């Protein structure tokens, strides 16, 4: 049975933990607000670039850029997995890693056995997980979320596009958590290269209806491009890939802070409940000790009276 001293030690320990989790919740909330602002600024631009490319392809520019052209067969693949650098965020990292493993099992198991499946891990948790399990890591972008910048997206985009053009891999996909709201995230497995014929819509995109409706051809506007569509795509397609990666990083960053805020709030609540239980246990033990002392005093007094 725990002594009063043991219970007091546990109470002090839980109180210290509660202070830490409460502080981490406040820090996550502040970071979440900044991350949300960045997402809301980036989403419309990224969506619009995809819409313009989709429009150009419908006008006949399907194979006008190497990143639009599919390779004849898929003999190698690159998967960009976006996790966090830290834990204490509930199932945030576990969910995206599970999504990546499900993708590998369902579509690229043969490539994995052949050793032609490559992983670009963004975030320390993903790099550690896949690195310890024998996957081929062609990119380790650990520690990027401490000060997230567009340069990181450019580096990842350059790796993915260069490898595709050089035929080191025949398809590129990206796996990440999309920010839905403070308490929920969408696990996204999205095609990146070659750019799909129709713009990939995430659940948030579909919910916000940010893309143009699929109008009949007679209602669709026709544009004149100067210079021609091929030159425009030369500039626009790399921007699209980079901004898709940048948006995924921002989505993941906001989703991580939301998950951490919820996890720390739950931890704080659990600490409060545990403190109540420990204090009740302490009071009962203290009352039992006092009762025992009183009984001992009474027994001693009675023994003296008998003599």
Helicity range of the residues? Answer: 55-70%
Order of helices and strands: HEHHEHEHEEHH
Please work out how many helical segments DSSP would assign.
7
Q: Report the sheet with the most strands, covering strand number, pairing sense and barrel closure.
A: 5 strands, mixed
Query: Distance between the terminal alpha carbons, to the nearest Å?
Result: 36 Å
**Secondary structure category:** alpha/beta
Number of beta strands = 5
Which stretches are low in confidence, meaning pLDDT under 50 for 5 or more residues running?
A: 211-219
The portion of residues forming beta strands comes to 5-15%
What is the typical, i.e. mean, pLDDT? 83
Largest beta sheet: what is the strand line-up? 3-2-1-4-5
- What would the principal axes of the Cα set say about the shape? elongated
Give the radius of gyration: 28 Å
Brief overview:
This protein is an alpha/beta fold and 307 residues long. 61% of the residues lie in helices and 13% in strands. Residues 211-219 have low confidence and may be disordered.
Describe the structure.
The protein is of the alpha/beta class and 307 residues long. It has helices at 4-58, 92-107, 109-114, 124-132, 150-165, 203-208, 229-306, and strands at 77-82, 117-122, 136-141, 171-181, 184-193. The longest helix has 78 residues, at 229-306. The protein is elongated and about 115 Å long. 31% of the residues are buried. The model is unreliable at 211-219 (pLDDT under 50).
Fill in the keyword field for this structure.
single chain, 307 residues, alpha/beta, five-stranded mixed β-sheet, 5 strands
């Amino acid at each position: 049975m725990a002594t009063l001293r043991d219970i007091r030690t546990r109470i002090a320990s839980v109180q210290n933990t509660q202070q830490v989790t409460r502080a981490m919740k406040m820090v996550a909330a502040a970071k979440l607000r900044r991350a949300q602002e960045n997402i809301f600024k980036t989403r419309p631009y990224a969506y619009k670039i995809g819409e313009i490319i989709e429009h150009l392809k419908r006008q006949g520019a399907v194979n006008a850029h190497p990143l639009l052209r599919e390779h004849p067969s898929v003999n190698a693949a690159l998967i960009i997995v976006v996790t966090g650098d830290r834990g204490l965020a509930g199932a945030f990292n576990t969910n995206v890693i599970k999504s990546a493993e499900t993708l590998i099992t369902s579509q690229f198991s043969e490539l994995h056995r052949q050793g032609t499946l490559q992983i670009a891990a963004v975030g320390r948790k993903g790099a550690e997980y896949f690195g310890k399990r024998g996957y081929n890591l062609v990119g380790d972008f650990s520690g990027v979320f401490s000060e997230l910048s567009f340069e990181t997206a450019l580096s990842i985009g350059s790796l993915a596009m260069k490898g595709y053009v050089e035929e080191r891999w025949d398809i590129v996909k990206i796996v990440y958590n999309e920010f839905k709201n403070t308490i929920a995230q969408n696990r996204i497995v999205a095609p990146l290269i070659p750019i799909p014929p129709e713009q990939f819509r995430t659940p948030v995109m579909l919910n916000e209806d940010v893309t143009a409706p699929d109008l009949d051809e007679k209602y669709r506007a026709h544009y004149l491009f100067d210079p021609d569509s091929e030159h425009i795509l030369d500039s626009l397609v790399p921007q699209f890939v980079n901004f898709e990666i940048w948006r995924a990083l921002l989505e993941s960053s906001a989703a991580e802070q939301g998950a951490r805020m919820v996890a720390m709030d739950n931890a704080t609540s659990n600490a409060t409940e545990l403190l109540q239980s420990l204090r009740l246990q302490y009071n009962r033990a203290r009352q039992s000790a006092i009762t025992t002392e009183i009984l001992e005093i009474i027994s001693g007094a009675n023994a003296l009276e008998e003599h």
